[in-house]
Write a structure and sequence with these properties.
D-Maltodextrin-Binding Protein, domain 2; 2 domains; globular
Length: 467
């Protein structure tokens, strides 16, 4: 089993490194940024000026310093000035100064900048690896002095933010629970030619469940004729998350393992069954051990679960991968769960220790909330999204439906935020049933180790090794 785990870790590291390199940070000075149409900018200006949701005058210091592997400003993906950034610019005279880094060096760079008093202001929390360990290590400061979660701007996300309190303080400013963390990408032409029902129709009719998902896979898969089932590195956790039971949760300021929950056993046994029936593409027949997203467009692979970020690029880029008839739906519903749970992200931001302008960050995040609450501004954002990325209204509607599911039942796994070692162990081992290892073997091998990680932090956080 240890060899299997090591092999999977190596594969995942290679896959993730390639993905992160392909979308790694670029110095914004080298990117030809797109600018908003003047009429659009004027409308944004008017909406922000006339709304009671945004308060206060223009900032004396409008610059906020952002460290990340991606730029908030226009970049090489084809996006325009984001609507929320335009609101920040127009309402408060704000700007975002981008400090680029690669994904893997984020924390090293953050540590360097904190030590040098550079005054980095904010850091992305949505990767869910910054909390609680970043709070424990005092890399981040509470946001409560700057964000009022009881205000009209923030009150509808107060409950989800209250899930992530450490020592009585909020360390993540969560703008929204997000439904785009993992979707089932497929090609409609491939589905139709196989004589199968369109998953979007099944979803609309309330019939998109584990059962219909598996039935489609079993009907389609024929490895001898290059017809493969599920590809990608996201499907295991995409399916696990549909139970509504995260691997690690935070309850009463204590980290809790849910590995022994019956739902975890049930979903792991189901994934093992999919493996036994040849429904998982990786390693089947001559498929090999590398993901092949282009097989979706070529009619060789049925399902490719992945984050919708893969569609947040110019149309030519995402169609080159998945074909002209590409579409997506949420992960299938667990028929035994009490609600329709999907993989849920958390668009959240951390205030960095020693930041030079936390007030400015708070105003920027207010603008992000405003862009979601103000109907006219949201409509403009959707229109811009369609123009930038070549989406159809049907795609926007499906994304909105996924967003509604996430907001109705936000269950967010923070296992990566415990420690790197604990996060890696959970990330690797919960995938093993998809590679032919029975769940009882995996559970017996990992559960005690996970409990030790959690006990150390729960009993003496400052002494815990959380690198």
């Amino acid at each position: 089993m240890k060899k299997a785990r090591t092999f999977i870790s190596a594969l995942l590291l290679t896959a993730m490194s390639m993905s992160l390199l392909s979308c790694s940070s670029k110095d914004k000075s080298s990117v030809s940024g797109k600018e908003l149409d003047s009429a659009v900018r004027e409308e944004i200006h008017q909406n922000a000026a006339e709304s009671d949701l945004l308060t206060g005058d223009k900032l004396e210091n409008g610059e906020i310093k952002w460290l990340s592997d991606w730029d908030i400003n226009p970049d090489g993906t084809g996006k325009n000035v984001p609507t929320d950034l335009a609101v920040f610019q127009e309402r408060y005279g704000g700007t975002v100064k981008y400090y680029p880094c690669t994904y893997n060096e984020r924390y090293d760079k953050l540590t360097e900048y904190i030590s040098s008093d550079e005054g980095i202001d904010f850091f992305y929390g949505g990767n869910l690896d910054a909390f609680p360990r970043g709070a424990i290590k005092e890399m981040f400061v509470p946001v409560d002095d700057y964000i009022d979660f009881d205000s009209p701007l923030w009150e509808d996300v107060k409950d989800v933010n209250d899930q992530f309190i450490w020592n009585g303080k909020h360390y993540m400013a969560g703008v929204q629970a997000t439904g785009d963390a993992v979707a089932v990408v497929y090609n409609r032409k491939t589905v139709a030619e196989a004589g199968l029902e369109d998953p979007a129709v099944l979803y609309e009719n309330g019939e998109w469940t584990w059962d219909t998902f598996q039935e489609m896979l079993e009907s389609y898969v024929d490895a001898d004729n290059q017809k493969y089932g599920i590809d990608g590195w996201w499907f295991e956790f995409g399916l696990i998350n549909t139970t509504g039971v995260p691997a690690i949760s935070l309850e009463n300021n204590k980290l809790v393992s849910n590995l022994s929950d019956p739902s975890m056993e049930r979903v792991q046994n189901w994934i093992y069954d999919l493996y036994q029936k040849g429904c998982i593409a990786i390693g089947v027949g001559d498929f090999g051990w590398e993901t092949k997203p282009a097989y979706v467009g070529e009619g060789k692979t049925l399902f490719y679960p992945i984050g919708l970020y893969d569609f947040y690029t110019e149309k030519s880029q995402w169609q080159a991968k998945y074909g002209e008839d590409a579409f997506f739906v949420p992960m299938p519903r667990d028929p035994e769960a009490d609600e329709y749970y999907i993989p849920t992200g958390f668009e959240s931001y951390m205030f960095v220790s020693g930041g030079s302008n936390p007030e400015g960050v708070a105003k920027y995040l207010d603008c992000k909330r405003f862009a979601r609450l103000d109907e006219d501004t949201k409509a403009m954002a959707d229109k811009q999204f369609m123009e930038d990325y070549g989406w159809t209204q049907e795609m926007i509607d499906m994304k909105d439906s996924m967003q509604e599911l996430a907001e109705e039942n936000p269950v967010i796994d923070i296992s990566r935020g415990v420690s790197k070692d604990c996060g890696d162990l959970i990330n690797d081992d919960l995938r093993l049933t998809a590679r032919g290892v029975p769940w009882n073997e995996t559970y017996d091998a990992m559960s005690a180790a996970v409990e030790k990680y959690l006990d150390k932090i729960n009993t003496d956080p400052k002494s815990a090794d959380i690198e």
